[in-house]
Amino acid sequence: SLQPLFARTDDWRRLKEGDSCEIRSENADKPLWYEARVVDVAGDRVEVRTVAQGAQERQRWLEVSSEQLCRMGTHIKRSRSATLQANARDAATADRHRADPYGGYQRDPA
Q: Is the pTM of this model over 0.85?
């Protein structure tokens, strides 16, 4: 028997303002995927804005059925913002260890 549509998966294309998604760059030579946020919704169209700093992608409207739009985690395995936070945390830890390599303990003179 036929199952109803989305019986075993969720309809991720029912996007609302603030949702995360991925958008494909408009560069036809080398398409890249960027993390984006939904800024506005109008019927079956969404306005999206990239989250990545330095991305040359403009804010734009896309059909929710567009192949330039996909579920977060499809092409970008880890959120770029989470990666940046992890890198900053690791850099801070390294700085702390350089400043005090023994973590407040005195080095054993022996």
A: no
